[in-house]
Amino acid sequence: MLEIIGLKKNYKKFTALNGIDLKVDEGQIFGFIGPNGAGKTTTMKIICGLLKPTDGQVFINNIDALQDIRRAKQYIGYMPDFFGVYDNLKVTEYLDFYSSIYGIKGNEKEKMIEDLLELVSLTDKADFFVDNLSRGMKQKLCLARCLVHNPKLLVLDEPASGMDPRARADMKKILNTLRDMGKTIIVSSHILSELSEICTSIGIISNGNIVISGDVNEVTNKVYNNKIIEIEVTDSVNKAEKILKEIDFVNDINQIGNKLEVIINGDNDNIRKILKMLVIQDVPVISLSKKTQNLEDIFLEVTKEA
Ligand SMILES: Nc1ncnc2c1ncn2[C@@H]1O[C@H](COP(=O)(O)OP(=O)(O)O)[C@@H](O)[C@H]1O
Ligand SMILES: [Mg+2]
User: Fold this and answer.
1) Could you tell me which of 85, 70, 9 has the C-alpha nearest to residue 40?
2) Opening angle at CA 72, ends 122 and 192, nearest 5
3) CATH 3.30.428.10 is the classification of domain 2-221
4) Is residue 32 packed enough to be buried (19+ CB in 10 Å), middle (13-18) or exposed (0-12)?
C-alpha cells in the first residue's frame, strides 16, 4: 500500500530525514514512533504531497506519489497534528464543506456525514459549533473530515495527542473499526503505550533515521534476543531455581514469591525444554508464560543504542 525508499529532507543545512525506507502492507496499522523532532510530521507531509523531499521515492498503491500527486491524493486521508479555528461553523456544516471539496452531493453526502458522525461518536454534537467542542471531540471531527472521500490509506499525525484517557480509548476503538473496514493506517505518536495494543507493525524513528521497523513481534524479537518467561510453582521454588541454573541458555533468574522470572536466549524450543526438564524432575509447575514487552520498553531499548 505504501512504500518509501531513501527519503531525505533537508531544511536548509539541517537534515530532518536521512534516507528512510518504510513499507506498509494493506490492512496494517503501522505505528510510527519517535520522540519530538524525530521527523514523523516531515515524513507524513511528504507522503501526503504537502512537502517536497530533497531526495527519495514514495509509492502509494503503486502510484509514484511524487510524480503523480493528484492521483495519489485520492487514496490518502491526512489528519494533521493541528486543528484550525473555524468560527461560526457547525459540526455538520464543517463536514459538508469538506465533502463539497470532493464533489460529494445530495443524499449520498447526507448519509455519509451521518455515518461518519456515528463512527466518531459525535452524532449528538451534530449541531454544535466546532469551536465549542472539547479538544478530543475536535480531533475526532478532524478524523471524520479526512474520511469524506473514502480513502484507502489514512495518515494520522498524533491523533490522540492531548486527549484524556477516555478519549484516547475511544480513538483506539475508532482506529480498530477503520481497520476492520479495510483501511490501511499509519499513526504517529511519541507516546508508545498509546499504540502498543492496536498496531500490527511499527517503525521507530530517531534523528531522521529508522532505527528499526517491521511486524510488532518481529521487532520485539529483534530488540530482545533474550526472552523473559515467568514460571509459577505451588512449592519447590528453590528446587526449580537449582534446576534452571544448570541450563546453559538460562541467563538470569529472579525469584518473586512462588514465581520465577527466567531470562533465556534462543527460540521457543528452549521454553519447551525448560518446561520438560521441570516436569520430569517433579517440580509442581502450575503456569509458564512468555512475558511480552510493550512498545515503551522496546523504544527505550532501541533509542538507547541509537
Ligand atoms: N519548516 C521547517 N524548517 C526548519 N526545520 C524544520 C521545519 N519543520 C521541521 N523542522 C525540523 O525538522 C525536525 C523534524 O521535525 P518533525 O518532522 O516535525 O518531527 P516530529 O513530527 O517527529 O516531532 C525537527 O528538528 C524540526 O525542528
Ligand atoms: Mg510531529
Assistant:
1) 9
2) 55
3) no
4) buried
> Residues 207-249: pLDDT tens digits?
999 988 988 877 877 776 777 899 999 888 999 999 999 999 9
- How would DSSP label each residue in 168-207? HHHHHHHHHHHHHTT-EEEEEES-THHHHTT-SEEEEEET
Tell me which residue has its CA closest to atom 5 in ligand 1: 11
Q: How many CA atoms lie within 13 A of 211 on its CB side?
A: 24
> Are domains 2-221 and 225-293 of this chain identical in fold?
no
Q: Where are the domains of the chain?
A: 2-221, 225-293
What angle separates helix 165-180 from helix 106-119, to the nearest 10 degrees?
130
pLDDT score at 87? 67
- Record the cell numbers describing residue 18, joined without a space: 536521512
pTM greater than 0.70? yes
CA dihedral 133, 171, 213, 61 (to 10 degrees): -80
Ligand 2: centre distance to CA 40 (Å): 5
What integer pLDDT is reported at residue 305 of this predicted model?
Answer: 56
Q: Which atom of ligand 1 is nearest to the CA of 158?
A: 21
Ligand 1, atom nearest to 12 Cα? 4
pLDDT at 41: 97
Residues with CB under 6 A from ligand 1: 11, 14, 16, 34, 36-42
Please give the CATH number for the structural domain made up of 225-293.
Answer: 3.30.70.980
Atom of ligand 1 nearest to the CA of 39: 17
Give the pLDDT band of residue 177 (cuts 50, 70, 90): very high
Q: How far is the CA of 31 from the centre of ligand 2 (A)?
A: 13
The pLDDT of residue 57: 96
